Amino acid sequence: MAAENQAAVTPMCKELREQFERDGYLVIRGALNESEVHHYEQALDRVYAEQARAGRLSPEGSMHKLSAVASCPETVGLIDHPNTFPLVWSVLGWNVHIYHSHLDVHPPIRVEKPYRFEWHQDGGRQNRELESDPRPRLSVKIAYWLSDVSETGRGNFKVVPGSHVRNWIDGPPRRDVRWPEPEGAVEVCAAPGDAVFFDRRLWHTRTDNYSDITRKGIFFAYSHRWSYGRDENDELLDSAACARFNPVQRQLLGARLASAGQVPGDHQWGHYPQTTPLHVFLKANDLLDPAYPPLKP
Ligand SMILES: O=C(O)CCC(=O)C(=O)O
């Protein structure tokens, strides 16, 4: 699936940008076709079976495995998928990487779980350590759905539309204290192959899956290369598999791009656009945009 220069040449259109700025998320219907869904689902099932054999599932049998491509190299084609990746560079620009990713499998829950308030914005301490209101976006995330969450109650992703510009939502004094759902919260419904693209500041939560369908999804969070990655890809980047990835994919996975005599940190900071594969690709396709600072030539 990892075709050379897979990144597509269609930037986010004005209407989608307005919708994204208003709601904090977009649903991309049919981002993956049927055979892609099959391919990625099989790969995810393989990792799930390995984790099950190794006794690494949660008590209720779920998997939340970090570093998606390192854990499952077959998923590499998702990271610069032509139907979704243009949304990432349209918003964040070319100096990006994947800082956090996960493979998720959530089988039906048979015994009711204790209540826990799980609403959050992504980024952990970013939400304490940044002082502005609203806090800056910093990252965006794509969720690919491989199971059918087209009806509510199947462990759907739940969001408060428009909440990405609010630093705070009302919540309980402790996470185990039952609390009303935030006003306006909706479960996002998606068919297999749909993707959800969201701003990390969007208040969101996973819901418990009490349906009969195992919930399966793969998540990739993108941020700028000057922010520290949470994924662990060192072994992957040294592996034979990585040699088959295209240059943009290697950039996204955190490959060292500095050449002899260059300070690696300077490269991460974006000092060398001419050897940053996504910049090279966007420039070659005339996709740099003087009107949008992250994409200024
Ligand atoms: O799994 C979900 O539906 C939500 C995932 C989530 O909370 C996250 O990606 O930060």
UniProtKB/TrEMBL annotation:
Keywords annotated in UniProt: Dioxygenase, Oxidoreductase
InterPro entries: Phytyl_CoA_dOase-like
Gene3D superfamilies named among the record's database cross-references: q2cbj1_9rhob like domain
GO molecular function, one term: iron ion binding
Entry superkingdom: Bacteria
PANTHER family with a match to the protein in the record: ECTOINE DIOXYGENASE, PHYTANOYL-COA DIOXYGENASE DOMAIN CONTAINING 1
Name this protein carries in UniProt: Phytanoyl-CoA dioxygenase family protein
